[in-house]
Amino acid sequence: MPSLSDFLKELPDGEKLVISGPTDLDFLPTALVLELEAQKRFPVVMIERPEGFEAPVVTNLFSDRARIAGMVGAGPTGFAQAWTAAMANLVPAVVSSGPAPVQEVVALGNQADAGELPISRHFEADAGRYIGSGILVCKDPDTGVRNLSFQRMQLKGPQKFGVSLHSRGHIWDHLQRCEARGKNLEVAVVIGCHPAIYIAAAAKVAMEVDELAVAGALLKQPIELVKCKTIDVEVPADAEYVIEGEILAGVHEDEGPYGEYTGYSTYRSTRNVFHVTAITRRQKPIFLDIVPGYSAEHLLLSRCTREAHVFHRLKEMVPTLKALNYPKSGTHFHAFMSFKKTAEGQARQALMLLMGLDSYIKLAVAVDEDIDVFDETEVMWALATRFQADTDLFMVPKVFCNRLDPSSVEGMSAKLGLDATKPLNFEGERTSLPQHALDWARDVLAGKAR
To answer: Which residues belong to any copy of the 3-octaprenyl-4-hydroxybenzoate carboxy-lyase-like N-terminal domain (predicted)?
Structure first.
């Protein structure tokens, strides 16, 4: 089964930025990634010598849409199709009994020291060093189905992390049922594995679906697993690190603040506690970090599967749907959709469907098929020339939303739909050029013609 190391080796040199000198992990990698983003550059950053630690650190892996598509064997624009095909053809994981790379080095109990891992402090207001790149693997306490998710983890001691489950996802539900029985929830934290597993872990799928089967479908081969040393959970055998432990039932401590995807540092937390029972790793591991906050990789990893899922479901009801984009400027709260309009009222129906499919969305814009929804300038132009506020918008107050929205009130937000499609009797005609003129201009700029 391919590993993170395998994927990195196959990356072209032009997609890598190697930092070979000693590098402080507090703030510097985050500053570098955000400055690269400001320059419209999205290489994978490889820090070979993090100060105070032995293992190299890799970050900014998920900052580019085309690279994410390549992680699942798709072309630059083929991710949505690959995702839909994978969801229709799941490949169950297999458990191996043989030796596993991720268990080449094993530290049990008090010998396990999470402080030895090259964990960064990303933003000034962060309460400490945080793991934001760990895939939390647990099992449904009733069915045994595995669940993968991302939750922020604040390092508090050699065998202790603060954890927030504020997304109220499946792991939250699993913990509630365990707590009702007076039991802790066993969890393994996987750091560093093939990127396709990260993509599957970021997805919102049904509780009865094992995200590792989704990852297998994306890679077109079963994910090989190995049993953990101290808990009843299986993890990818080719991972770099695994932290084994339990989220403690009924135990709560302050956690945070932490820089979240909204671009704000937040104290909002479920204040849970994770106790480490073992740490296993490769002999020479790579620590994969994900820069949190309002970074491209944080938003794209969270968003790529959501876009694909919502697009597929929305197209079932809106057959003329052309494209869907969650722009970075809106974090996870804005969405632009384009479609071919054949009747008045279609845009409003499509907007309501879109907001119903994704509770995160608080502003949605519908445009005609001639508008590129991945170009915010075009969407704003459509709003400027095809939209009137007295007839083309609607608002729904007090709707369930994501609690990390700092403007939300008691977990509720208003939803705003904007119809920037042309009326069917629209008289304006968009300016255009003949194709041969466009081809000539491009050839001139490419040095192919004079």
So the answer is: 14-83
